[in-house]
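User: Sequence in, structure out. Go.
Assistant: Echoing your sequence, followed by the structure tokens.
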Amino acid sequence: METKGALTIGGNCWLGARVTVTDASSIGDHCVIGAGAVVTKPIPADSLAVGVPAKVVKSI
């Protein structure tokens, strides 16, 4: 099995129900990911992200 890169999830993150985080993406510290979101790219720290694919909608 091959990977595209490291998967990193920062501290104090909240992930909603059925969130999918793909290979080679990352989630920064203190993030909230909405239910059903699909994270395909890096999410910066202190962000709220929702949707398919997940997009940052607000900085918290």
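User: And one key feature?
Assistant: The chain has one domain: 8-59.
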